[in-house]
Amino acid sequence: MRIFWLAPWYLLVAASWATAATEPIYLSPAQVDFTGVLAPPPADDSPAGIAELEELRQIAKTRTDAEWRQAMWDDHNETIVIYNDVLGGIELMSLPKTKALFDQVQNDRRAATDRAKDHYLRKRPSVRDPSLKTCGGVRMPLSSFPSGHSSWGFASAVVLAAMVPDKEAEILARAKTFAESRMICGMHHRSDTVAGQVLGTVVAERLLAHPAFRAKFDDAAAELRAALKK
Protein backbone atom coordinates (compact mmCIF):
# COMPACT_ATOMS: atom_id res chain seq x y z
CA MET A 1 0.00 0.00 0.00
CA ARG A 2 1.34 3.39 -0.99
CA ILE A 3 0.19 6.63 0.60
CA PHE A 4 0.73 10.06 -0.94
CA TRP A 5 -0.05 13.47 0.49
CA LEU A 6 -1.99 15.40 -2.15
CA ALA A 7 -1.86 18.96 -0.81
CA PRO A 8 -1.79 20.81 2.54
CA TRP A 9 -5.45 21.78 2.21
CA TYR A 10 -6.47 18.13 2.28
CA LEU A 11 -5.73 18.28 6.04
CA LEU A 12 -3.93 14.98 6.32
CA VAL A 13 -6.33 13.18 3.97
CA ALA A 14 -4.22 10.81 1.89
CA ALA A 15 -4.80 9.21 -1.47
CA SER A 16 -3.89 5.57 -1.11
CA TRP A 17 -4.37 2.50 -3.18
CA ALA A 18 -2.82 -0.90 -3.61
CA THR A 19 -1.63 -1.71 -7.10
CA ALA A 20 -0.63 -5.07 -8.47
CA ALA A 21 2.02 -4.59 -11.10
CA THR A 22 0.98 -5.75 -14.55
CA GLU A 23 3.61 -8.09 -15.95
CA PRO A 24 4.23 -7.59 -19.69
CA ILE A 25 3.84 -10.56 -22.01
CA TYR A 26 6.13 -9.38 -24.81
CA LEU A 27 7.73 -6.01 -24.07
CA SER A 28 10.13 -5.60 -21.17
CA PRO A 29 10.50 -2.22 -19.44
CA ALA A 30 13.74 -1.70 -21.34
CA GLN A 31 11.90 -2.18 -24.64
CA VAL A 32 9.38 0.54 -23.73
CA ASP A 33 11.41 3.16 -21.87
CA PHE A 34 8.79 5.88 -21.37
CA THR A 35 11.40 8.38 -20.21
CA GLY A 36 12.89 8.25 -23.69
CA VAL A 37 9.64 8.95 -25.54
CA LEU A 38 7.59 11.17 -23.20
CA ALA A 39 8.27 14.76 -22.25
CA PRO A 40 7.38 15.26 -18.56
CA PRO A 41 4.04 16.95 -17.86
CA PRO A 42 4.02 20.67 -17.03
CA ALA A 43 4.14 21.59 -13.37
CA ASP A 44 0.75 22.47 -11.91
CA ASP A 45 1.82 26.04 -11.12
CA SER A 46 3.54 26.65 -14.47
CA PRO A 47 1.84 28.75 -17.18
CA ALA A 48 1.27 25.58 -19.24
CA GLY A 49 -0.13 23.68 -16.25
CA ILE A 50 -2.49 26.53 -15.36
CA ALA A 51 -3.60 26.84 -19.01
CA GLU A 52 -4.38 23.12 -19.17
CA LEU A 53 -6.69 23.35 -16.18
CA GLU A 54 -8.41 26.41 -17.61
CA GLU A 55 -8.96 24.53 -20.87
CA LEU A 56 -10.80 21.81 -18.96
CA ARG A 57 -12.97 24.41 -17.23
CA GLN A 58 -13.93 25.82 -20.62
CA ILE A 59 -14.68 22.33 -21.99
CA ALA A 60 -16.93 21.71 -18.98
CA LYS A 61 -18.87 24.89 -19.77
CA THR A 62 -19.35 24.18 -23.49
CA ARG A 63 -19.68 20.38 -23.80
CA THR A 64 -23.00 19.15 -25.15
CA ASP A 65 -25.19 16.46 -23.62
CA ALA A 66 -24.29 14.18 -26.55
CA GLU A 67 -20.57 14.70 -25.96
CA TRP A 68 -21.01 13.92 -22.26
CA ARG A 69 -22.96 10.73 -22.99
CA GLN A 70 -20.29 9.59 -25.44
CA ALA A 71 -17.53 10.39 -22.95
CA MET A 72 -19.37 8.41 -20.27
CA TRP A 73 -19.73 5.46 -22.66
CA ASP A 74 -16.04 5.63 -23.56
CA ASP A 75 -15.15 5.79 -19.86
CA HIS A 76 -16.84 2.42 -19.31
CA ASN A 77 -15.68 0.67 -22.49
CA GLU A 78 -11.90 0.43 -22.61
CA THR A 79 -11.96 -2.58 -24.97
CA ILE A 80 -12.02 -3.25 -28.70
CA VAL A 81 -15.80 -2.70 -28.74
CA ILE A 82 -15.00 0.95 -29.43
CA TYR A 83 -14.25 -0.07 -33.03
CA ASN A 84 -17.36 -2.17 -33.70
CA ASP A 85 -19.19 0.63 -35.51
CA VAL A 86 -16.08 1.66 -37.46
CA LEU A 87 -15.95 -1.86 -38.90
CA GLY A 88 -19.61 -1.97 -39.89
CA GLY A 89 -21.13 -3.17 -36.63
CA ILE A 90 -19.12 -6.37 -36.29
CA GLU A 91 -18.85 -7.74 -32.73
CA LEU A 92 -15.07 -7.82 -32.34
CA MET A 93 -15.27 -9.42 -28.89
CA SER A 94 -17.00 -12.44 -30.46
CA LEU A 95 -13.91 -13.29 -32.53
CA PRO A 96 -11.75 -15.45 -30.22
CA LYS A 97 -8.35 -14.95 -31.83
CA THR A 98 -8.95 -11.24 -32.29
CA LYS A 99 -10.13 -10.80 -28.71
CA ALA A 100 -7.15 -12.77 -27.37
CA LEU A 101 -4.72 -10.68 -29.39
CA PHE A 102 -6.14 -7.38 -28.14
CA ASP A 103 -6.20 -8.67 -24.58
CA GLN A 104 -2.44 -9.04 -24.98
CA VAL A 105 -2.15 -5.55 -26.47
CA GLN A 106 -4.12 -4.27 -23.48
CA ASN A 107 -1.83 -6.09 -21.06
CA ASP A 108 1.45 -4.74 -22.43
CA ARG A 109 -0.05 -1.30 -22.98
CA ARG A 110 -1.22 -1.23 -19.35
CA ALA A 111 2.15 -2.42 -18.03
CA ALA A 112 3.97 0.40 -19.84
CA THR A 113 1.40 3.03 -18.90
CA ASP A 114 1.29 2.07 -15.23
CA ARG A 115 5.07 2.34 -14.98
CA ALA A 116 4.83 5.88 -16.34
CA LYS A 117 1.94 6.82 -14.05
CA ASP A 118 3.87 5.57 -11.03
CA HIS A 119 6.89 7.61 -12.10
CA TYR A 120 5.19 10.95 -12.75
CA LEU A 121 2.42 10.82 -10.09
CA ARG A 122 0.55 13.74 -11.64
CA LYS A 123 -2.62 14.93 -9.92
CA ARG A 124 -5.91 14.37 -11.68
CA PRO A 125 -7.61 17.58 -12.85
CA SER A 126 -10.42 17.16 -10.31
CA VAL A 127 -7.84 16.95 -7.51
CA ARG A 128 -6.49 20.29 -8.64
CA ASP A 129 -10.01 21.72 -9.04
CA PRO A 130 -12.69 19.75 -7.16
CA SER A 131 -15.44 21.71 -8.95
CA LEU A 132 -14.72 19.79 -12.15
CA LYS A 133 -17.38 17.15 -12.83
CA THR A 134 -15.90 13.79 -13.81
CA CYS A 135 -17.30 10.69 -15.45
CA GLY A 136 -16.60 8.46 -12.48
CA GLY A 137 -15.25 10.25 -9.44
CA VAL A 138 -11.57 10.58 -8.56
CA ARG A 139 -9.81 7.32 -9.37
CA MET A 140 -6.18 6.91 -8.35
CA PRO A 141 -5.75 10.66 -7.75
CA LEU A 142 -2.05 10.74 -8.66
CA SER A 143 -2.30 8.89 -11.96
CA SER A 144 -3.17 11.55 -14.51
CA PHE A 145 -0.07 11.28 -16.73
CA PRO A 146 -0.20 9.61 -19.16
CA SER A 147 -3.84 8.84 -19.91
CA GLY A 148 -4.49 5.11 -19.85
CA HIS A 149 -7.59 5.38 -22.05
CA SER A 150 -5.61 7.38 -24.60
CA SER A 151 -2.73 4.89 -24.60
CA TRP A 152 -5.21 2.04 -25.07
CA GLY A 153 -7.01 3.88 -27.87
CA PHE A 154 -3.86 4.39 -29.90
CA ALA A 155 -2.17 1.07 -29.09
CA SER A 156 -5.29 -0.79 -30.22
CA ALA A 157 -5.86 1.52 -33.19
CA VAL A 158 -2.36 1.06 -34.62
CA VAL A 159 -2.61 -2.73 -34.33
CA LEU A 160 -6.16 -2.82 -35.74
CA ALA A 161 -5.22 -0.53 -38.63
CA ALA A 162 -2.42 -2.93 -39.51
CA MET A 163 -5.04 -5.69 -39.70
CA VAL A 164 -7.53 -3.66 -41.75
CA PRO A 165 -5.44 -1.03 -43.56
CA ASP A 166 -8.30 0.21 -45.74
CA LYS A 167 -10.01 1.44 -42.54
CA GLU A 168 -6.90 3.08 -41.08
CA ALA A 169 -8.21 6.67 -41.23
CA GLU A 170 -11.50 5.80 -39.54
CA ILE A 171 -9.82 3.66 -36.88
CA LEU A 172 -7.31 6.37 -35.96
CA ALA A 173 -10.08 8.99 -35.93
CA ARG A 174 -12.00 6.88 -33.41
CA ALA A 175 -8.86 6.58 -31.25
CA LYS A 176 -8.59 10.37 -31.30
CA THR A 177 -12.18 10.93 -30.15
CA PHE A 178 -11.72 8.21 -27.52
CA ALA A 179 -8.70 10.06 -26.14
CA GLU A 180 -10.44 13.45 -26.25
CA SER A 181 -13.34 12.00 -24.28
CA ARG A 182 -11.01 12.00 -21.28
CA MET A 183 -10.94 15.80 -21.29
CA ILE A 184 -14.72 16.00 -21.71
CA CYS A 185 -14.89 13.65 -18.71
CA GLY A 186 -12.63 15.91 -16.68
CA MET A 187 -10.35 12.95 -16.07
CA HIS A 188 -7.19 14.12 -17.88
CA HIS A 189 -5.32 17.19 -19.05
CA ARG A 190 -4.48 17.58 -22.72
CA SER A 191 -0.81 16.71 -22.22
CA ASP A 192 -1.95 13.49 -20.50
CA THR A 193 -3.89 12.43 -23.59
CA VAL A 194 -1.06 13.42 -25.94
CA ALA A 195 1.39 11.38 -23.87
CA GLY A 196 -1.03 8.45 -23.97
CA GLN A 197 -1.14 8.69 -27.76
CA VAL A 198 2.65 8.67 -27.98
CA LEU A 199 3.13 5.80 -25.56
CA GLY A 200 0.31 3.70 -27.00
CA THR A 201 1.70 4.13 -30.50
CA VAL A 202 5.19 3.10 -29.37
CA VAL A 203 3.81 0.00 -27.64
CA ALA A 204 1.86 -1.01 -30.75
CA GLU A 205 4.78 -0.49 -33.12
CA ARG A 206 7.10 -2.55 -30.93
CA LEU A 207 4.52 -5.31 -30.55
CA LEU A 208 4.11 -5.47 -34.31
CA ALA A 209 7.88 -5.90 -34.63
CA HIS A 210 7.95 -8.73 -32.06
CA PRO A 211 8.09 -12.19 -33.77
CA ALA A 212 5.97 -14.01 -31.18
CA PHE A 213 3.28 -11.34 -31.20
CA ARG A 214 3.38 -11.14 -34.97
CA ALA A 215 2.54 -14.83 -35.32
CA LYS A 216 -0.60 -14.36 -33.23
CA PHE A 217 -1.35 -11.14 -35.09
CA ASP A 218 -1.36 -12.97 -38.45
CA ASP A 219 -3.86 -15.55 -37.17
CA ALA A 220 -6.14 -12.89 -35.70
CA ALA A 221 -5.95 -10.76 -38.84
CA ALA A 222 -7.02 -13.71 -40.97
CA GLU A 223 -9.95 -14.36 -38.62
CA LEU A 224 -11.05 -10.72 -38.67
CA ARG A 225 -10.77 -10.32 -42.44
CA ALA A 226 -12.82 -13.48 -42.97
CA ALA A 227 -15.52 -12.13 -40.63
CA LEU A 228 -15.60 -8.80 -42.46
CA LYS A 229 -16.28 -10.58 -45.75
CA LYS A 230 -19.44 -12.27 -44.46
Question: Can you summarize this structure?
Answer:
By secondary structure, the chain is mainly alpha-helical. The chain contains eight helices and two strands, in the order E-E-H-H-H-H-H-H-H-H. The protein has a two-stranded antiparallel ribbon with strand order 1-2.
Give the helix/strand layout:
Layout: E1 2-5, E2 14-17, H1 47-62, H2 65-75, H3 96-120, H4 125-128, H5 148-163, H6 168-184, H7 190-208, H8 211-229
Helix pairs in contact: 2-6, 3-5, 3-7, 3-8, 5-6, 5-7, 6-7
What descriptors fit this protein?
single chain; 230 residues; mainly alpha; Vanadium-containing Chloroperoxidase, domain 1; two-stranded antiparallel ribbon; 8 helices; 55% helix; 3% strand; globular; disordered N terminus
What does this protein look like?
By secondary structure, the protein is mainly α. The protein has one domain: Phosphatidic acid phosphatase type 2/haloperoxidase (Vanadium-containing Chloroperoxidase, domain 1, Up-down Bundle). It contains 8 helices and 2 strands. It has helices spanning 47-62, 65-75, 96-120, 125-128, 148-163, 168-184, 190-208, 211-229; strands at 2-5, 14-17. The chain has a two-stranded antiparallel ribbon. A hairpin with an 8-residue loop joins strand 1 and strand 2 (14-17). Helix 5 (148-163) runs parallel beside helix 7 (190-208). The relative contact order is 0.17.
